Amino acid sequence: MDDLRDKYIALIAEAGNEATLEELRVQAVGKKGEISLKMRELGKMTPEERQVMGPKLNTLKDEINSALAMKKEALADAALDERLKGEWLDVTLPGRARREGTIHPVSQVMEEVTAIFADLGFSVAEGPQIETDWYNFDALNIPGHHPARAEMDTFYTHRAEGDNRPPHVLRTHTSPVQIRSMEKHGAPIRIICPGRVYRADYDQTHTPMFHQVEGLAIGKDISMANLKWVLEEFFSAFFGTHVDTRFRASHFPFTEPSAEVDIQCEWVDGQVKVGEGNDWLEVLGSGMVHPKVLEAGGIDPNEYQGFAFGIGIDRLAMLKYGIPDLRAFFDSDLRWLRHYGFASLDQPTLHGGLSR
Ligand code: DAH
Question: Which alpha helices (H) appear in 139-290, and where do they start and end?
């Protein structure tokens, strides 16, 4: 038995791979292995012999088995070490930079406008971009024959031959959302509606799709003075400096009285500076909501009154960020977007500053 032990312990120690080790296992403790055969001989022994030999053989078998197991583990460790040498990886290499997109100036300005008006107690309302002619025109006191319809260069949707219902339109302004909001929420109400609008027009300052933000405030005693305060408050927050406004009498079918509002500015070397100088720049239309419009929205004009305004968002973006040509806004030119775009994690807030 000592010979057997010495022989196998030595062979196991020498084994260079798992296959050899497995052969040794079969030879020694497999069904027909040397040690297994010895165990079978126990049956032929006298009980006294068996009492001595049995435990010895069991101990031998255990010894061989544990030697096999330890060698197996050692071989596996060695194989892993070998593999790891080949699979060396330099984790200090710098990563491959991924290009990050930017926030479009229009989206940025919409966020800024929303943040300022939210602070003034206005909530955001939305409406469809494809409107009925009733919401886009009639309800806003622009009847069928009104010249404003022609002036707006409206896009009409197609109706089938023989279908005489008035066609839907791509909304020409965000004003229809006034009506929808009044219908939905009644008075009092304070909302803004930023969104896309459409007109068939194209030059340096006009694109067929552009953006407006509509404002509406209805209550029992809201006046033109409130309108002026809100707008000055808005422009000063938006441009980050006090901005004087000038109200010029004007005409819109949906307001009475109506005013176009200019902001104070100065031209320096062909660049416009807002909040300085003695020039004026027209930026929005506004007025006291026409009684017929209140009625169309389901609000009693004898009980309620209020103001409304509509501002061009793209125009605001051009002014604030010094962008010369409106058409480039919608060209999707990556160089332009990288230059004028904003960091996506840098969302405008009043406490953090509106833009950086
Ligand atoms: N809807 C007008 C336009 O697109 C802008 C406007 C003017 C909106 C006066 C208003 C307003 O709410 O009161 O030109």
Answer: 147-151, 176-185, 224-239
Q: What's the angle, vertex CA 55, arms to CA 50 and CA 56, rounded to 5? A: 95
The candidate with the shortest Cα–Cα distance to 322, out of 346, 344, 343, 339, is 339
Domain ranges of the chain: 2-86, 105-340
Closest CA to 309 of 113, 144, 146, 132: 113
> Closest Cα to atom 4, ligand 1: which residue?
173
- What does the DSSP 8-state code read for residue 162? T
Question: Residue 149 pLDDT > 90, yes or no?
Answer: no
Look up residue 212 and give its amino acid: Q
Of residues 293, 308, 305, the one with CA closest to residue 227: 308
* pLDDT above 60 (res 14): yes
Residue 148 has pLDDT above 80, yes or no: no
With respect to CATH, is domain 105-340 assigned 3.30.930.10? yes
Measured distance CA(336)–CA(286) in Å, rounded: 33
- Choose which residue among 286, 294, 307 to substitute to test ligand 1 binding: the one with the highest number of ligand atoms within 8 A of its C-beta: 286
Return the ligand 1 atom nearest residue 215 CA: 12
Q: Which two tokens stand for residue 208?
A: 């067929």
d(CA 353, CA 342): 14
Average pLDDT for residues 333-337, to the nearest whole number?
94
Each residue's pLDDT tens digit, 290-318: 999 999 999 999 999 999 999 999 999 99
Q: How far apart are CA 326 and CA 205, in angstroms?
A: 5
- The mean per-residue pLDDT over the stretch 107-129 comes to 96
pLDDT (tens digit, 9 = 90+) per residue, 48-70? Answer: 988 988 899 999 999 999 999 99
Q: Output Rg (C-alpha) for the chain, integer angstroms.
A: 42
For the entire predicted model, the pTM comes to: 0.73
Nearest CA to ligand 1 atom 3: 173
pLDDT score at 356:
54
Specify the 3-state DSSP secondary structure of 252. strand
∠ CA 146-147-151, nearest 5°, is 135
